Amino acid sequence: MRNLFTLIAAILVSIGAHSQAGFEGTIDFQIGVSGEDIEQMKKNFPTNLTLKIKENKMFGKNTGGELSKMFSGFIFDGDENSIYLLSPALQTAMKVQSTQASSESAPKVEVTKTTETTTIAGHSCTKYILKESEGRKGTIEIWATEDFNVEKPKDLGNLTGNMFMQGIDGFPLKVVTSQEGTEIKMEVREVRKETIDPSNFILPSGYRVQPLDFSLLSTMLPGLGN
């Protein structure tokens, strides 16, 4: 199950790395988990994700689940092309920064743009299907809207890069990940254009900054498996 957890973390941070040129406001996602023998995973996973966006900066806050007690969200800084994963339990901001090596080591992902469309939270979306060309089995469906003017990020470390967003036009309003008999769905419930206070993008007082160590995230949560 840890492989799936890593995959979801990568997608979440990749979404967060899409700075919104020209969009200012709040986007609320709802997160759901389904499948067999996943009670512990349901207990761990957050149920909601809120994004606050202003120019090329974004603050993400997840709520619900044991994960939120340790990993509360992230701050993306487009000026320095870095993401800080916020851990209130550790009083730490784990930094993921642009690296050229990440694009070379990231998994290859095949992206297929379909002709299917739907409306999510009042925005027209097109469906994309993503599959890793090597290794693990599983699929990702992304419904993306071009209503937002999206600036693509550069690579952000070997956990994320922007490997799940290459070849996708627009901002993801729905992501469905299927792997190992488990499905995780993230879908936007509301998009609000509003003024965002710049203080949202300041690291919490007293947090120390250190490079990302994913093992701290996975080992502190029971039931993720291998």
Descriptive overview:
The chain has a 12-stranded mixed β-sheet. Strands 1-11 form a two-stranded antiparallel ribbon. It starts with a helix and ends in a 7-residue tail after the last helix. The chain is globular. Helices cover 18% and strands 44% of the residues. It has a single domain, classed as outer membrane lipoprotein receptor (LolB), chain A, CATH 2.50.20. The chain is of the alpha+beta class and 226 residues long.
Annotation keywords:
disordered C terminus, outer membrane lipoprotein receptor (LolB), chain A, alpha+beta, 18% helix, 12-stranded mixed sheet, disordered N terminus, 226 residues, globular, 14 strands
In short:
With 226 residues, this protein is α+β, with helices and mostly antiparallel strands. The chain is 18% helix and 44% strand. The strands form 2 sheets. The protein has a 12-stranded mixed β-sheet with strand order 8-9-10-12-13-2-3-4-5-6-7-14. The chain has a two-stranded antiparallel sheet with strand order 1-11.
State the CATH topology: outer membrane lipoprotein receptor (LolB), chain A
Largest sheet features: 12 strands, mixed
Task: Please identify the structural class as seen in this structure.
Answer: alpha+beta
Q: Can you list the strand order of the major beta sheet?
A: 8-9-10-12-13-2-3-4-5-6-7-14
The N- to C-terminal Cα distance equals: 6 Å
Backbone shape: globular
Work out the helicity level.
10-25%
Which CATH architecture is right? Clam
Number of domains: 1
Low-pLDDT ranges: 1-5, 156-161, 222-226
Tally of DSSP helical segments: 6
State the order of secondary-structure elements, H for helix, E for strand: HEEHEEHEEEHEEEEHEEEH
Q: Averaged pLDDT, please?
A: 77
How many E strands? 14
Strand content: 35-45%
Gyration radius (Cα, Å) is 16 Å
Instruction: Return the CATH class.
Output: Mainly Beta
